[in-house]
Amino acid sequence: MTVQRAAVSPTVEAFSQSLLDRVDMGARFCGLFGSAEPNGARLVAVLAEGGELATTSVFVRDLAAHYPSLTPRLPAAAWYEREIHDLFGVEAIGHGRLDPLILPLVAGSPRPRPGSGKPLEPVEIDVSPLPAHLRGEGVFTISYGPVRSGVFESVEYLVETPGEYIPHLRPRVFHKHRGVEIQFEGMDVADGALLAERCEGVASVAHTVAYCGAVEQIAGVEIPAPAGLVRVIHAELERVANHLDSAIRHTEAAGQAVAYARLTLHKERVQRLRARLCGSRFGRGVVVPGGVSGAPSLAADALFAGIDQIDHAAREDLRLLMATPSFVDRLRGTGVLPPELARQYAAIGPVGRGSGQMEDARFARPYASYQRLGHQPLDSRVEGDALARQRVRIDEIAVAFHLIRQAIDRLDLLTRAEPAWAVPLDSKLSGEAIGWAEAPQGEVLYLVVMEEGRLTRVKPRSASFHNLGVFHAAFPKDILTDFAFIEASFGLSIAGVAN
Amino acid sequence: MPWIPRGLREGILTSRYPRRPDGYGEGFRGTVVVHPSGDPRVATAAEACPTNAISVAEGRLHLDRGRCILCGRCTELCPEVFQFEPTFETATIGRDALVVPDLDEDELAAEQVRTELARRVKAFRRSVHIRHVDAGSDGSEEWEVAALTNPVYDVQRLGIYFTASPRHADLLLVTGVGAAGMLGPLRETYDAMPEPKVVIAAGVDAISGGLLADSYVAQGGLADAVPVDVFVPGSPPSPFGLLFGILLAVGLLPRPATP
Lengths: 499, 259
Fold this sequence. Notes:
Chain A is α+β, with helices and mostly antiparallel strands. Chain A has helices at residues 12-24, 78-88, 180-183, 189-197, 204-219, 225-254, 257-278, 300-321, 325-331, 339-344, 349-353, 361-364, 386-414, 463-468, 483-490, 494-497, and strands spanning 5-8, 28-37, 40-49, 52-61, 66-68, 91-93, 140-144, 156-161, 168-172, 287-288, 291-292, 431-439, 442-451, 454-461. Chain A folds into two domains: 5-128, NADH:ubiquinone oxidoreductase Nqo5 subunit (Beta Polymerase, domain 2, 2-Layer Sandwich), CATH 3.30.460; 181-463, Cytochrome-c3 Hydrogenase, chain B (Orthogonal Bundle), CATH 1.10.645.10.
């Protein structure tokens, strides 16, 4: 487990300066969170520096709840500062566009202020339309969503366009805001794990691994080796299912009916294999604080057989898909996120890796049992288009199956003796830590604060939130009909954005 | 044309459900069944339930499947009374029917609700068009709804279609906790649908709010946002569970119901 360094700044100016200096020195900006404190709020920034996570924080007093915005020099902070404004009312001066993001409140409505403890009265939200940003002859706004054409999560995209090109796009994500992070407060660690699974349901395993990682750091325990391997197996199956889902969305948009049918079949088989392993098609209930809930309910040879069937069939179909010109032509050059913008926005996951941002939390900061397993590094890609992101995902599916096979082998050896699946945790834990995991969408972070065994502040930060903040930058010369491909190639879940 | 043989390679993979029972479900956490007994550990299990789905009132034990997120704590703490059963035919007409063992409900009133629904769906005949709306889900429900069009479930064989426009829709399938920001769009979608129409609440989040029942931006499920006819429990509900719920709603289950 990597040791985290935590720094506290005396003033907001010193906080901003040190943060910007460290990013200039090569640190990756991972997120900026708020936490309510008596008479004010604490801002915590998380940076990845040389393979480690480090935090730096500052106290902002209620009487003057503002600070100089980081966004003009650090575009990646734009959405975080909007979220902090929504939840705490702390204002980033000089942000430029501090519009409501996850919670547009009616004027005068109290802010939720996560970290101050429940209960909270229901709030009233302001759903009125936003004014257009662009002006010009013939420019109009298409409001796409929140109820979309098809089975999609609810989100609204405001497309400002003169007719074909998409010069400006704004996602509005507040519709689905469920108040998840406040719901953690007052829970014990076991209930918290159940809620973490439902923060971003398609990445339940990654979310609980990140959450439990934080709790285990606070407790100062290492999970048993077999538990780490079970976490790897479930996390990688989740990755395969999500990457297949992204490919399915592409084939649907391209009208590739047979490929669509084949890939949905493979995904269904992955979901069924997960259900046979643990009873849940989403791996729910597997990861618990201190380890895992028990042994997989499939023997190693049955699991190998299931993996082989899916791997073989999916590999062949994906190879054929990537050799189908009518499919590939829709992705090539579509939705280019230039590497320089990906760096500025600190893009993560397959979105980042399609644009030269190669960091992968599994190998940069190994958790679970990843350090015990071998893997080939992925080819570096810099094209930044939907095709590059699709290729990253196909490569990652192969790596995932390779990791799963190694994990099953090792688990088989370890479980010949009666293994321990979890270590007991002290019921009166207090402390603070940041846990992480590489979800299929990218790095997930959990800031967890506990007092006397109860959660007092939990901030989940999904990769979907972080990457949707850069989505608007991926439309340099694309037209409306490319939209479905670009959205599929980002592969994000709105539940994780507006939790 | 290399895709054509690829599509034929594995023969027919489609389930025969509901005409034949489907063997799917081995080891699957479908639902929790209750065998009431005097076991004192029931109180511990009720206490441990994260969504307060278990109640013991006047010596009578009830489990509300509309709240149960299938975490399995009760099955571990009190295995004689609470057990997982690998079934997916758990959807009900009417909210109270999700409580097991049965409440002492007014059987006549329940029968009236069923008859009224059956009368309403008569006009659908053998085809039903579904409009799905996410009213604050965790994202997994959408995967399960979308799975209904994969070759295994292939609901089009049953005359079930998903439609983009609410004006073509007979059935509104709603997922999610009923987040404040979605209540308006949900209501507009419902109002845009022609009569007669049917509403399904899919998943415990939609039925009761699940773990987010007392959130400041949710109101314990869809509650009064739209009038719900059929309730499909599960967290999330499985594709077969959803299919059973849809068939139950529109009266297309073969009679007698499959065992």
